[in-house]
Design a protein that fits this description.
By secondary structure, this protein is an alpha/beta fold. The protein has helices spanning 31-39, 46-62, 67-75, 82-92, 97-120, 146-155, 172-183, 196-201, 226-235, 266-269, 311-318; strands at residues 4-7, 10-14, 25-28, 128-131, 161-165, 188-191, 207-210, 214-216, 219-223, 240-243, 270-271, 274-275, 288-292, 298-301, 304-306. The protein contains eleven helices and 15 strands. The longest helix is centred in the middle third of the chain and has 24 residues, at 97-120.
Length: 319
């Protein structure tokens, strides 16, 4: 299931705001259309945002826009996902933005397949795997990172079950991850966000696997709520893994200096179009939080599984 398609010099995206009720598409004719799609979460997930941004640059190139100016506009659309910046800079440095974007599109699929192969090695027959937010095919071009690991293990014939938390405030776990698992007949259950600690305390979760929007040598940034899941996993001795491509790695900063996107209050004050709190309620709505490396059992990348104790050594080899 591909999240996006380049056709007739247009970018066609699955509109993820309509799922699971409707499989609809959003057509981008200009780079500004892609910016709208990124800001409104028509397309979301760090790898998918990166490739969509690459195609935004391609659209600007085809219309003879000023690519330096366009690059800055695209980078301002969502500040936390490092893939967006990586993709824009890579296309900007290329000779042919369209060909470069298409190459990145294919690379993303191969990268996710490799992450799935490496990650499936840690999955045992009978495992129950908890995931947070959506790091599946919908967060990438195809296949997925965290859910790519699940897919790979399932396709190998392993008897596994998936638990998705709802992932408030926008419900990416409930709306998107559950939908993906059901599409492939992978056994899945949905839980409230506040139930994950209870399940781990009861010994009903064997592993946690999530994605990431940024990876540094001292931790990761991922969807808000990831830290609470990681803390519960540490307390109840449940291995907590992160699946992420190298394009999500940021070699230049501490994870604590990541700019955390603050989103609009209506995402919290309303759910399914209905108000769930009194009018005038003040809201704090960070989109991401930070999970320090000492809570992480390993980072599953396309180059293998990285032990957090060797993060700095691994980073130095890649720089």
């Amino acid at each position: 299931m591909k999240t996006m398609e380049w056709k007739d010099n247009k970018l066609i995206l699955i509109d993820q705001t309509k799922l699971p009720d409707e499989l609809a598409y959003f057509t981008c004719n200009t780079y500004r259309d892609v910016i709208v799609a990124i800001k409104t979460m028509v397309v979301r997930g760090a790898p998918a945002i990166g490739v969509a941004a690459a195609f935004a640059m391609a659209l600007a190139y085809l219309r003879d826009e000023n690519l330096e100016k366009v690059a800055n506009e695209i980078k301002s659309s969502r500040p936390t996902a490092i893939n967006l910046f990586w993709a824009v800079d890579r296309v900007l440095a290329s000779n042919n933005p369209v060909e470069e974007a298409l190459t990145m599109y294919e690379e993303d699929i191969e990268t996710n397949l490799a992450i799935g192969r490496y990650g499936s090695e840690i999955i045992l027959d009978g495992d129950v795997i908890l995931t947070h937010c959506n790091a599946g095919a919908l967060a990438c071009v195809d296949y997925g990172t965290a859910l790519g690991v699940v897919r790979s293990a399932f396709h190998q014939g392993k008897d596994i079950n998936v638990v998705c938390d709802e992932t408030r405030p926008l419900g990416q776990g409930a709306r998107l991850s559950v939908w993906e698992m059901q599409k492939e007949n992978i056994p899945v259950k949905l839980i409230p966000d506040v139930a994950s600690g209870y399940l781990m305390q009861q010994g009903k979760i064997d592993k946690v696997i999530i994605g990431a929007d940024r990876v540094a040598n001292d931790g990761i940034a991922n969807k808000i709520g990831s830290l609470m899941v990681a803390l519960a996993a540490k307390r109840f001795h449940v291995p907590f893994y992160v699946a992420a491509p190298l394009s999500t790695f940021d070699f230049d900063i501490s994870i604590y200096s990541t700019e955390i996107e603050e989103r609009g209050p209506e995402e919290v004050t309303h759910y399914g179009g209905s108000r769930i709190c009194p009018k005038g309620t003040e809201v704090i709505n960070p989109a991401f939080d930070i999970v320090p490396s000492d809570l992480i059992a390993g980072i599953i990348s396309e180059k293998g599984i990285i032990n957090p104790e060797k993060f700095k050594e691994f980073f130095q080899k890649l720089i």
